[in-house]
């Protein structure tokens, strides 16, 4: 199904680039940073308006495998010298994100931009900046790819 | 579109002007159909449409990766369940249902199998232990008293026999474990429960005379309970004595490797000095309890001309000496484990053999005869009784022919129903059944025989250690001449003949 994979990603990329060029269509605060190939894309995310993450910018890394769109892409915040992941109860300090749409609740109706918007609203609705429970244990043992983690989605409110 | 004849012609996916697959995001315009044409589907109530191939792939992924069954497959947008049609005959659905049921019951069957294996192997171990326990009791108490006490038919055994007998092999092994300082006496499980047990055979033969008697017989041989109580003291005293003998005779018993190396080094340097100074009379004392990490010591010894420091050898080993602890621990690991267990399990047989040897000797030596106090064999036994023990009672219950006797057998231990608690305890300690008191005290001579055997064994062990130590100390490397070597190659001292 690699035909579906490449055709769909090319199409999504094309739509994103069109949106980015047109300020009227563009999703506010989300910007495509890099999409050199169909494997790894980078976005920057800002939460606009009044939120705990005012004036903070985060970078999101989206990795695809040929099973896309039948399987979700691997999405995580970039952790580097320049950018840090947000402090959020569903975001581990290694950048991994615990969100059901990135696992069991993924469906092909979603898209990369839909993921970015979901994560942006997840940050916008956050009430308290705190690390996830068991962050240190998870970070010590976590695989490189967050898709290899079996998250248990227990909180639907955030 | 003709809206009046709605029922006859509802619009379908094929009536859309532009179709957009919600999975692969491909568009298809009705006026530009591809070649070959693709199949589209609208599986739900919302506006989503998809290529049938894409949807099939999505469904397969869902089933494979999330184990979702057909009933759980629905549209991600409107939640409408997908319906399937086509080749799905009854027989396939039956197969699927049966398969699901089998998978579910498979787990239960696996649990049952594991449980059965655990239970049956446990039962096997238990029965093996019971069998060994009965064998040990027979060996130690003698076949006559065993037949009287328990009978050869396990159906007759009293309830507590089923607890005591399987404990015997374990307590024998534990009694030999050097790590348990308060080691239980191996005699306790072998001896304690049986004298106070009403012999099954006698109880069956004449159910009227079921009473316990407090040591009506003379004080020799002593009551088994007393022997059991005194045994630990005898054992500890003997152990101390033996250790003292070993310490004084073979002072470097079980030398650690470091000590051995140190001693060898000392001897070599001593020989070097002897050659140089002809001081043959310096005997280096082996150093005990001295830790090898004393750096100045070898350097001192290495200097020729300096006399070896004579240190007084410690009289007794430090109890906390690591080497001794290690030696003790080593005894319960590795290959010696088999030796330990085997030796423990052989104990009753050894006791029996030693006991009969004592009996043979007693014919010639009156002192031993007095000591072991043998009796002529008891009267011939009544014919084997019908099963009445707890197992027998069970069997009887199953057969439906249960009578009053099994109840008596269950209520019997110590007969303490009407007497006070203290009296009951006293009876438990001192009382022996009539048959026990009047029978040949095989157990006594076997116990003595076992003691003799252990003493002899320890004696041989000490001798072995002493010989090994002598060999180690007296060992010299044979000095050979230069015969066969060209003498011109050697720088020899000119000697006047």
List the helices and strands and how they pair.
The complex is a heterodimer of chains A (about 160) and B (about 500).
Chain A: H1 2-21, E1 30-34, E2 40-46, E3 57-63, E4 74-77, H2 112-124, H3 135-141
Antiparallel strand pairs in A: 1-2, 2-3, 3-4
Chain B: E1 18-20, E2 27-29, E3 40-41, E4 50-51, H1 52-66, H2 90-141, H3 143-149, H4 161-176, H5 187-191, H6 200-205, E5 213-214, H7 224-249, H8 257-277, H9 296-302, H10 322-330, H11 336-364, H12 366-372, H13 390-399, H14 405-411, H15 421-430, E6 431-432, H16 434-438, H17 442-474
Helix pairs in contact in B: 2-3, 2-4, 2-11, 4-11, 7-17, 11-12, 11-17
Describe the structure.
The complex is a heterodimer of chains A (158) and B (497). By secondary structure, chain A is of the alpha+beta class. Chain A is built from three helices and four strands. In chain A, strand 1 and strand 2 form a beta hairpin. The longest helix of chain A has 20 residues. Chain A is globular. Chain B is 53% helix and 3% strand. Chain B is elongated. Chain B contains 17 helices and six strands. Chain B is an all-alpha fold. Chain B has a two-stranded antiparallel ribbon with strand order 1-2. Chain B has a two-stranded antiparallel sheet with strand order 3-4. At the A-B interface, helix 1 of A face helix 1 of B.
- Morphology of chain B: elongated
Low-confidence stretches of chain B: 1-6, 207-217, 277-320, 380-384, 400-419
Strand content of chain A: 5-15%
Low-confidence spans of chain A: pLDDT under 50, at least 5 residues? none
The largest chain-to-chain contact, stated as pair and per-chain residue counts, equals: A-B, 15 and 14 residues
Spell the H/E element sequence of chain A.
HEEEEHH
What would the principal axes of the Cα set say about the shape of chain A?
Answer: globular
**Radius of gyration of chain A over all CA atoms, rounded:** 15 Å
CATH class of chain A: Alpha Beta
| CATH homology-level superfamily of chain A | Ubiquitin Conjugating Enzyme
- Fold-level CATH name of chain A: Ubiquitin Conjugating Enzyme
As a percent range, the share of helical residues of chain B equals: 40-55%
Main structural class of chain A: alpha+beta
Order of helices and strands of chain B: EEEEHHHHHHEHHHHHHHHHEHH
Number of strands of chain A: 4
Return the average pLDDT of chain B rounded to an integer. Answer: 70
Strand content of chain B: under 5%
Count of helical stretches of chain A = 3
Protein name (chain A): UBC-like protein
Keywords (chain A): Ubl conjugation pathway
Organism (chain A): Russula ochroleuca
Domain UBC core (chain A): 4-158
């Amino acid at each position: 199904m690699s035909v579906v994979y490449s055709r769909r990603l090319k199409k999504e990329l094309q739509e994103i680039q069109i949106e980015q060029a047109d300020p009227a269509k563009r999703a506010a605060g989300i910007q495509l940073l890099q999409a050199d190939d169909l494997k790894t894309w980078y976005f920057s995310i800002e939460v606009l308006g009044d939120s705990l993450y005012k004036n903070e910018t985060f970078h999101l890394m989206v990795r695809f495998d040929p099973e896309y769109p039948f399987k979700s892409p691997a999405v995580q915040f970039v952790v580097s010298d320049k950018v840090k992941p947000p402090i959020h109860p569903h975001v581990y300090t290694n950048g991994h994100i615990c969100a059901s749409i990135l696992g069991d609740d993924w469906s092909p109706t979603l898209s990369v931009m839909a993921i970015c918007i979901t994560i942006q609203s997840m940050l916008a609705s956050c009430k308290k900046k705190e690390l996830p429970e068991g962050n240190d244990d998870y970070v010590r043992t976590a695989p490189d790819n967050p898709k290899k983690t079996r998250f248990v989605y227990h909180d639907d409110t955030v | 579109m003709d809206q009046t004849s709605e029922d006859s012609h509802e619009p379908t996916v094929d009536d859309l002007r532009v179709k957009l697959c919600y999975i692969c995001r491909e568009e298809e315009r009705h006026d530009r159909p591809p070649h070959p044409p693709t199949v589209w589907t609208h599986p739900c109530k919302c506006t989503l449409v998809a290529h049938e191939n894409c949807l099939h792939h999505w469904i397969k992924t869902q089933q494979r990766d999330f184990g979702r069954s057909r009933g759980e497959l629905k549209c991600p947008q409107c939640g409408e369940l997908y319906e399937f049609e086509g080749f799905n005959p009854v027989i396939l659905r039956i197969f699927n249902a049966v398969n699901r049921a089998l998978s579910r019951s498979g787990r239960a069957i696996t649990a049952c199998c594991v449980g059965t294996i655990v239970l049956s192997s446990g039962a096997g171990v238990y029965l093996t232990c019971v069998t060994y326990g009965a064998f040990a009791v027979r060996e130690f108490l003698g076949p006559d008293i065993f037949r009287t006490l328990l009978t050869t038919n396990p159906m007759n055994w009293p309830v507590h026999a089923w607890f005591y007998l399987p404990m015997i092999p374990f307590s024998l092994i534990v009694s030999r474990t050097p790590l348990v300082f308060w080691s239980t006496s191996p005699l306790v499980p072998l001896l304690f429960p049986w004298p106070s047990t009403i012999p099954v055979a006698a109880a069956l033969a004449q159910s009227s005379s079921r009473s316990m008697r407090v040591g009506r017989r003379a004080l020799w041989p002593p009551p088994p309970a007393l022997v059991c109580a005194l045994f630990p003291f005898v054992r500890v005293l003997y152990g101390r004595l033996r250790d003292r003998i070993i310490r004084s005779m073979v002072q470097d018993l079980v030398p650690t490797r470091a000590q051995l190396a140190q001693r060898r080094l000392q001897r070599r340097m001593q020989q070097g000095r002897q050659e140089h100074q002809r001081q043959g009379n310096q005997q280096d004392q082996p150093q005990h309890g001295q830790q090898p990490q004393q750096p100045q010591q070898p350097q001192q010894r290495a200097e020729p001309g300096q006399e070896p420091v004579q240190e007084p050898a410690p009289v007794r080993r430090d109890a906390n000496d690591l080497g001794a602890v290690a030696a003790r621990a080593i005894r319960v690991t590795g290959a010696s484990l088999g030796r330990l267990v085997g030796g423990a399990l052989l104990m009753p047989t050894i006791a029996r053999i030693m006991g009969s040897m004592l009996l043979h000797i007693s014919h010639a030596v009156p002192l031993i005869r007095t000591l072991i106090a043998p009796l002529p064999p008891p009267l011939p036994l009544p014919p084997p009784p019908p099963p009445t023990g707890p197992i027998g009672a069970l069997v009887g219950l199953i057969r439906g022919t249960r009578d009053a006797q099994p109840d008596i057998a269950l209520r019997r231990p110590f007969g303490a129903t009407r007497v006070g608690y203290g009296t009951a305890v006293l009876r438990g300690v001192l009382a022996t059944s009539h048959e026990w008191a009047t029978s040949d005290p095989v157990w006594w001579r076997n116990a003595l025989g076992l003691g003799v055997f252990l003493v002899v064994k320890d004696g041989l062990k000490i001798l072995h250690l002493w010989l090994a130590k002598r060999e180690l100390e007296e060992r010299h490397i044979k000095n050979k001449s230069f015969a066969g070597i060209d003498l011109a190659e050697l720088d020899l001292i000119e000697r006047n003949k």
